[in-house]
Amino acid sequence: MLSGCRYRLELTEEQAGRCQEFGDVCRAVWNTALDQRRQYVDRYTRGRDGEFCGYHLQARQLAEAKAEEPWLSSAPSHVLQQTLKDLDRSCREKGTFKVTFRAKHRWNPSFRFPAGNLITVEKLNRTWSRAKLPKLGWVTFRSSRPIGGTIRSATVSRKGGHWFVSFLVEDGQLTPESHPGTPVGIDRGVAVAATTSGGEFHDREFATSGEKARHLKLQKKLARQKKSSANRAKTLKAMGRISTRAVDRRGDFCAQTAHQLTTRHGVVVLEELRTTNMTASAQGTVESPGKQVRQKAGLNRAILDQGWYRLETALRNAARTTGTSVVLVNPAYTSQACHRCTHVDSNSRTSQAVFECTECGHIDHADVNAATNILRAAGHAVPACGDLAVGRSVKQEPAPPRGVAHQPALPLAGIPHL
């Protein structure tokens, strides 16, 4: 099984400058190759002939360009070839015109060393280790956990002002065939990040009130500063530090929640939510302006802040080690249907947290009711007794054997039977 291990690098000024140079070269190769692919697609749609612009053609052109442009030789050849491979895969999966260019001020530099046999890792002491990377030499990193396998590749990236290295490791583990745990449905929401059909609520605050106030103050300061100035760069760096802390907390929350759910349950059922479409802007055009644009923008921020897609990715990643199955179901009417009588009515949800069925009068927490509907939509039975509704139902007696008439329970001695 392939797994990733990420560590924080402690680079010298020379190594940090070289990493920045490698990232700039990879960005230039990406943008140039993407522009070539778009020009080829445009010529092809117009019926003009030409050689197919794929990885092999661009790899040959890159080798020829390195002889004419010496700055291309500053980065390792296999790193640039890996950039072309990543571009080729993105164009095949997303489409050439849906792949974006890498802007200088909006892209965090990153590059990959695909040859694991050229990477050497040594343990220095209990806290520090070092790795030998092509054209970088020995780089020191904090060994927060053991690598635990054979290194297949290494990716160097910058985030929040720090450089990191991620090793792709073959750990030799196999995914279990099955998981004995019970199934569970999960409702992802805005007020609570994740609610299970068993009544568990998983949520945490990713940014404190002080950090939010500080970030807003820096945004106002940024609006008054001149573009490309040194003070503006300092403000952007300070804003990046706050955003990075929130992103790291969100990733830690998703990883911990995914570990807990996949360890306890054999099947995890989620709604098939298209986060990209759900968070699209309602701005509209000049001819047909959108409605409630400010409200939609606030909802988009709330959805993105909860990390719905990141939780799904974390669940799939954690499920590889436990054998848990992650199932996606149609999200239609899961929050409007009563899980007891299956009656659908938008008026049943009286508030954000309260669900009161207009048909049978069943009262439940809205998110728990939705999570139960999600579990039922996957074809898994929901227990009729012991539910976690606000009006808790009385536990039912077990059914008698076939052919035996049901006998009512006798009252306890001294207690009148009402």
TrEMBL record:
Keywords noted in UniProt: DNA recombination, DNA-binding, Metal-binding, Transposition, Zinc
Per UniProt, residues of the Cas12f1-like TNB domain are 308-374
Residue intervals of the Probable transposase IS891/IS1136/IS1341 domain = 167-280
Any Pfam family hit: Cas12f1-like_TNB
Which region ranges are annotated with the description Disordered?
395-418
Please give the InterPro entries that the UniProt record associates with this protein: Cas12f1-like_TNB, Transposase, Transposase_put_HTH
Superkingdom of this entry's organism? Bacteria
**Family assignment?**
In the C-terminal section; belongs to the transposase 35 family.
Name of protein: Transposase
